Amino acid sequence: MQSPTVTEAGEEEVLEVCKTVGELKEVIVTNIEEDSANSPPEPSSGPGTKSGQDDNWGETTTAVTGTSEHSLSQEDIVRITKDLEDSVGLDCRRYFTLALAVVLGLLVFLTPLAFLVLPHLLWPEKLQSCGTACEGLFISVAFKLLILLLAVWALFFRPPRAGLPRVFVFRALLAVLVLLFVVSYWLFYGVRILDSQDENYQGIVQYAVSLVDALLFIHYLAIVLLELRQLQPCFSMCVTRSTDGETRHYNLGQLSIQRAALALLENYYRDFPVHNPALLTASKSRAAKHLAGLKVYNVDGEFPAAPAEGPGNNAAAGLAHSQSRAMIAAAARRRDASHNELYYEEAEHERRVRKRKARLVVAVEEAFTHIKRMQEEEQKKSPGDVMDPREAAQAIFPSMARALQKYLRTTKQQHCHSMESIQQHLAFCITNNMTPKAFLESYLTPGPTLQYSRERWLARQWMLISEASVTSGLRDGAVFLLKCIDFSLVVTAKKIPYIQMSEEYIDPKSHKFVLRLQSETSV
Description:
β1 and β2 form a beta hairpin. It contains 12 helices and 7 strands. The strands form 2 sheets. Strands 4-3-7-6-5 form a 5-stranded antiparallel beta sheet, covered by helices on one side. Strands 1-2 form a two-stranded antiparallel sheet. It is elongated and about 100 Å long. Helices cover 49% and strands 8% of the residues. The longest helix has 49 residues, at 74-122. By secondary structure, it is of the alpha+beta class.
């Protein structure tokens, strides 16, 4: 199957996606050429298309550049196929794990109750009467089971944060330990109590109490292994984004590689600025200019057409070799002077950004002066001119839309903010009586990834790549990758060194000073 090629405006390309459950869907993708300024976008008619917000919402013309608002890019198709491929397996594994946890929990909580009820059902006439101490043990069992139930609910029955590639080793070991523990108690109960039909009911109650006490101790062990063990920092993790080199450092404790990756991803969405692929195209286009526009001329005349084999063929090969060397030399000379081009490009870009920013600040401040929060007595006087925050945002947004859109285009942020999201943010600022500077802060300073909608993340599925097993613990010098569609996070672990501190005592009475006078000092 041939790879898809770039088509002209108006041409349609049918891509087949065969990842649904037994059915085939055709998605018609419309690709519009970058610089077609006069051709309006044609909406696609496939059922798999999704609606998006046009980046040119601030323009008054009808020309649209870039991808159509109803088209699907190659990244979207890869993401859709990946989601369809992994969703079924992840859901089955999640529900299977939850079912096992529920069955094990019911077995644990019903076992002490079964120990107390079975003697009354099987041999009630042989049981001895339960005295005051025995009845007090009933209260102890009831409250201990209630405490155990709340503790298990707080520690284990929490909504899952992510789907890990392997099982959590400590949690699996604890589950196996609890299962073996309960089975051993049942074996002892069956051999020593059920078979012999023990008449000492107080001893049976004490046996059930010992089981509940042991389960409480196992829960304490689970808290130590799952929560407390990882609190002390042991490793310094360096996280670097592969595309732009953005780097952060985090301290983690004794964790496995997959759980360390999960902790780093949670910090990534909070601390890293959103990934902007548009900022990387400038350097690529500048590097492509080094070889573009170079022409090679033969001042001695062209070689005549030569047969398939002969001396003319060797001469043509020599000419091609000399041309390639000339191209390399010319590109090297141009590269030597490219730093001046880069310097002036960055200076011009900074000047344009400052100019767009100044216009945007003035436009937003003028727009905010047109609205005023009304008091309750003023609302009773003129109810006809009162607007809610949504209507007020829609009223003042056109006066700042063009300046805001030009600034976002200059800073390559137009794909991160849609017109609807900007109006919602404007209504939020108006509702909470925020200043124009507070409104502009979200656009002047790129925020973390979580500030943007999920459609702008472009990284929902992560792949953990590691030479060591992902269930093994972190070690000094460990390196692993967290890869998504557009970029990857390179993680390096460094062990925090052992620090040796010593003490030196200084007597407070030893702080004595004298005045040193020189002969040239004026008195």
